[in-house]
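A quick aside before the break. I want you to see a complete sequence-to-structure record at least once, exactly as it would be stored in a machine-readable document. Don't worry about memorizing anything.
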Amino acid sequence: MIKKIFYIIKPFMPRELQLYLRRKIILAKLPGYKDVWPILKGSEKKPDNWKGWPDNKKFAVILTHDVEHKRGYDRVLQLMEIEKQLGFVSSFNFIPERDYVVEKDLLLTLKDNGFEYGVHGLNHDGKLFSSEAEFLKRVKKINYYLKDWGAVGFRAPAMHHNLDWIGELNIEYDLSTFDTDPFEPQPDGVGTIFPFWVPNKRHKNGGYWELPYTLPQDFTPFVLMREKTIKIWQEKTDWIAKNGGMVLVNVHPDYINFNNNLTNINEEFSINIYKDFLNYIISNYNNQFWNGIIRDLVNHF
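That is the input. The structure line, written in tokens, reads:
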């Protein structure tokens, strides 16, 4: 009910007020969640019949990006080049029907550079999971874009999820959950730092791989909490690496300032923070981690 009310009043609430309220809420809640966030003890347990990471690597680093608005869309290739120069690849998730047009040339450029892309909901209006009927109505369009783009991955807006319903999509993997994150609108974490198989209850022999994000989304530490270092990400990465899990992060190009000129300080953080994170992984775990596109990873399993 609270979620529905929020999306009703959100269009009439100034963005500054939204951020102010969310900052107040998260800072008030933070002390009460120190035992479950950002590290949830018990989530390091390996799944049954765990095959390990490709190339026998110690752990995995999976970089994902949700492109929320045209501002982020216009920064996609810039972010791709930074990751490429550091030796990483990632997956970009695009919203088919919002305030930008997903160009086939851009998708081809990502693919030609060894990167991946997926579908991020339909229009990001908060209503995708409002009812099963509404979800099934939108499935047709989402499946159309999946096929048209040649994509096999999906992530729901705002990390809303119903894993049974998501099984109606023609996908190989989904990214709509997290191991632990009590600050999300739908805070029910899946409690694991590993991928897991979701069988399709409606269609025999069907299913898909679920990959939860395991580092807090960039928006939480760097926009809401106004952290200036990678300390939260670094400590969680070290813990995941120690336990052979999956470092999966969601970084939005919309919130990155590439010029280090933070004119929009309320909604952006310096690209240097993200570079520091990638360089930390390289410096401390060189040749110990697997990084690649997600469709290759799920084919490994």
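Two observations worth writing down. The chain has a mean pLDDT of 92. Residues 26 and 240 are 24 Å apart (CA to CA). We'll return to this after the break.
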